[in-house]
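Bumping with the actual sequence this time:
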Amino acid sequence: MELNDPRQGNLYDKVFKENMDANLDGIVAQVLSMKITRSEEISDDLQQTKERKADLLKKVQDENGQVFILHIEYQRQNDQNMAYRMAEYCIMLQVKHTYAY
């Protein structure tokens, strides 16, 4: 298998997961000072297609010359999940306007 073969990444992930299963409790205890009392596997498939349209989106500059993306959402009523929606917007905006792939 060549160095840049995509299958190599999958093999690495498999080996890493197997080693983490055996050592996770100790690593979490050392790094996070937390004792795991119970754990269970959850799906690691995070694929999702999502489109969002912001209510108000502007590129602004303040008096110090710093440039920001100003994002405002108008709501008629309280949305219990608004923090999650805004976090999604934030990540999507950063990927689109900050990183060049």
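The tokens above came from a reply further down the thread. The radius of gyration is 21 Å.
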